[in-house]
Task: structure prediction
Amino acid sequence: MKLFKLFIMSLFLLSFVGCGGDDENSEPKAITFDMNTTSYQVPDDVKVIDAKIEGTSAQMMSTGTNEEVVAFVQELGSVTSTPKNYKILQKGVESAYSQLVSAGGSIDSLSLLSTQNFTTPYDFTIAHYKLTTNKEIEPLTLAGEIINTLSGNVVQGLPLADENAPVDTLFRLVLLYGEYEESSFYIAVVVPEKLYTQYETQSSGFVNAARVVPKGKTLTTLSEKFSQNSGTQKADFLFVVDDSGSMGDDQDALSQAANDFSAEMISSGLTYRSVVITTGYGADDATNGQAYRILRNRGVIENNTTLLRESLVAGTNGSSTETGIWNAEQALQSTALNDATDGAVTLAGMPQSGATLSVIIISDEPSQYRYRSNYQDFNVSDNLFLDRNIRVYSIIQPDYSYASTGIFDQYNRSQYDDLSAITQGIYTDIRNKDTNGSLDFSIFMKKIAQDAGGAASSFILAHSATVINEVKVNGSVIVESTTNGYTYVQSSKAIVFHGTAIPPSGASIEVSYDYYQ
Result:
């Protein structure tokens, strides 16, 4: 009888504590918000705000002690199953921009900091905005206004902010628009701008597109191992700077932002090289090669912030016919890649062996490509940059900006943002200003450096991670940090190390992460 009682007691205890053993390969647990055709995995250590929101399918979340950061996922409705392209996805964030700037309410102004298209795990776009309000407001209240605006002002039951929540008038709005299976949706983050750096990791976690999956997908944990190569990771950059008469302030702002760009590159352990050309005076080095004047005078700039800063101030005596894309194409011609000639950048030895190559264009006017190309239009979907896996970043006025000012037409349009979008680069609005009203491209240049660091990383995951569980170098756990730790770059599915956390040559790296399959 005693044995029987002990047996029953053992079963009772096991029902609470489990059977023990190795459960590393068990299916991870995750809180999800189910929409019509897809689900959203809520990040760990996040407060799901209990509110019966009516009028739209949305879930609000927060992190921080007193709702410093608020996020939401919102399903918009069904979409056709036709193949998506970058223009359709751009329209998603541009539509949100148009609705929010005309909504009134607490929103005073909205300016674009960056936009980037992605292709994994599905096609989507992420935009960063600087948002100002006409009164002090809590992040949760502002996020509720945004949900209501994007839903046609029919939403009821939005939650009230925590009484200790911070109030501010300057915010960062991070907005993801995606179309997956038959569902379209937004994921958004609202955080006071002064707190964004503190909560950048958490904000990126919310807008990780791998968290949105069709219902029924299985969440799996995988561990991948890498080794640090003996060679240093390398990145090359071609800057194409508008040198027309209106560009003085813009060049100065770009030059100042070079400090943040260089600091981020160095932090990522990359050696980087740069060359600078301009948008004016054509691109034929033999006849009117003023476009290559800086390249010829300065040569290739290696890990030299001071020289890069000086070179980005390209002067304002160039042609008013700005042809940044045409000049970049000509400069990158390569006989080794079956072109008829070698361009000036190729002759300068770029890209170097084993390096990624990125193009950064700055211009305050639309591309006038056809005026250098014998009136042949630039083909955004079939070009040298796509063929050679070159990401194009641009500081310009986006297409919809020209449309609103009445100078948009099929020939005289930006094209720069289209090219950035289709090559998965990033673009921003050249009119961005800091709180003092001065032009400011520092945030954008830092994002370029982060993105380039991901593209050049040797540690590319096999799947899009919903969360990085643990990163180890030679058995030691590395923290997630942009200072002396690691970051996960969504655009490349890459782990990037920073500062003292950069693995030494020959080191063993192990990454444990979750993904849906």
Summary: Residues 318 and 476 are 54 Å apart (CA to CA). The mean pLDDT is 87. Residues 234-454 form a domain with the Rossmann fold fold (CATH 3.40.50.410).
